[in-house]
């Protein structure tokens, strides 16, 4: 017998837990969270590599409706963020709603009954509404390099760190120099015998103004909440100004590029190494990274930066294009995630029996980043074109939660059993988005990045101020949607089919 709930949430990261908290705060208790892992936390459970931390200040990178006045640092380390997320479970009594170890295998829309039928590894569920919070960066991506399968040592992705594999005294290769690698390279450089860092494209790196949050600040944030709100608003505003350069006037980022060049110059004495670390694309085209210890780590005697392309992996070495062999015992991949081809899209089957992955064969699209034509009562959290290059993803998640909660209210008020965005509305929305994306630094900055899909289309980022997205999703607007009432379903249903 399937377990039925009004709302089925998939994923227990910031999105899924945030959705659960908002539902409870709205007086809704009939929901479950289906999570494949045996713990909550998502990104912050999986990315427990040495040095992992957020790169948006914690007071903004946390849920506004579940504040934490006691963040230890401006950029809190992973264990603290993970504890914060675990804490939400107790703070909002979410344990009865959690179904850990429940990987979504298939979610199929039953149009006759107007409900989702969901199969997980551990049981089946039905629900009126399906909320997908499976994360844009939750499926690690490994590069297709010849010979990887024959590697005789230990190889793993940074989001699946092998804590049982001691790196002390080993020869280690790191492939990739993105946001994760620049955090763990300085940590492991001190531990290993030899570290070879393989870089395809250098990132732009600016100083990381991290500092402990003082006892006085903790006291103020706890006892005078407006001070915490003011700190949050200050971070938000400062970050938001970057959107101008990224989306309209890339030249405005020249000052940030100058800061990054100065940082490189101050931290790397060797001009030849500096040259190889200086990006040749416009700043902002790829994520701007923050670090004070990555460049110094690369200058260590036991660390080598290799910029020749990798040709293949041998059982005991990485071989680069010139035929040079770099002997290694361990390979750590800091090569990012399947951001433009999320695996969950293969598991979701819509009204006409088509999979979300098929609907997205030419690239991911949604309406307001949240709903998709052909997939009634489906709400995506961090869906297509909701990602950010400059500020906190939590702001986007919260905006989408406003949309979700007001959609549920609208459905209840008018006895609506199914909402589905009109194909024309979705198309027009995306045409507008793509026009706006044309002039952005991500599309014109001269880099290859995971923001663009295999067709060169930017299906990941939101091309404007985040408050514009907040305004767009402030409340569910039924215009642009096809709505079906209970009455219509009842008449369409064969009598033996139960109606929710
Ligand atoms: C290392 C790292 C650092 C980051 N730092 C920042 C930062 O500083 N600022 C920022 O704004 N963003 C940052 N991000 C982006 C980050 O992913 C988002 O901010 C946010 O954590 C996403 O939350 P989420 O709940 O949507 O996804 P996730 O945290 O990825 O959670 C998704 C959950 O869904 C589960 N799941 C996936 N598939 C299934 C399935 N089929 N069935 C059941 N469960 C499933 C996963 O196990 C996971 O628990 C970072 C990302 C990474 C990888």
Automatic annotation (TrEMBL):
InterPro entries: FAD-bind_Monooxygenase_sf, FAD/NAD-bd_sf. It comes from the Bacteria. Keywords: Monooxygenase, Oxidoreductase. The keyword Magnesium does not apply. One of its GO terms (molecular function) is monooxygenase activity. PANTHER family: FAD_NAD(P)-BINDING DOMAIN-CONTAINING PROTEIN-RELATED, L-ORNITHINE N(5)-MONOOXYGENASE-RELATED. This is Flavin-binding monooxygenase.
